[in-house]
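cron nightly-structures :: item 1 of 1
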Amino acid sequence: MPVFRVSLLLFSMILGSTFAVEALAGIKTNYWAIWDKSNESNSRSIDHSQFDRLLHSYVVVNHPSGINRFRYGDVSAGDSKTLDRYIAKMARIDPRDYRRQEQKAYWINLYNGLVIQIVLRQYPDATLNTQINKRKKLVKVAGVKLSLKDIENRILRPIWQDRKVLFALSCGALGCPNIQPQAYTSANSKQLLNRSVREFINHPRGLVVDRQSLQASKLFDWYAEDFGSQKKMIKFFAHYAEDNKALYLLGFKGTIAYGYDSRINAPEAQWPSS
């Protein structure tokens, strides 16, 4: 086996043991304790089939840009109403009655469904630099009005303490992690989360490396507290990066520049922008 492959394997083993511990050390900022409850004895699953069919129908996974797109302009009136019904159905569920893994998928799908719903209501006016108001209360769950910011920063991030959750949430922009062509479930969440992280880290909008600098998505700046120090953030990059990127990251000691493309992730949007 070539020397550099041995080195990389050893480095991956070290990273693996590191992340097993560090993944538990996240944030409690804005922690919303009322949602930190579950019923682990409940073996039932939440049905996300409506949302799953919508994603299968309208997510483009082989776009030349390497970024998954959503065909907002092709969504039929019937499918738009199906999305509305799905979100209404999710709002009638109290996720605290379910197992923790069911809850995680529930919140991710609800977040992504709400984002799609917002963009559809603005489209085609949302094609350039759309601004989604994450503070606006959009849905009522168990009698509590919630915004996207609530779901992301008060529920998912502080309760699950899992950096990978950030890559499951699609904000509708080109600069965001990929929207996946299927709904999250308790059964597939681990696989989809790992796929989302790897796709983002190994695409130029997520991370670009060269001999002199490291350019990363603004997402890593906005949520820097989830990663800790820059050293820990670079370890996270290397853990999910392809071999050539991981090897470069081993010795990186410079500063990180951040960027973000806020244009809507519709198929017609050119990336990179001209």
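cron nightly-structures :: done
DSSP finds nine helices and seven strands in the chain.
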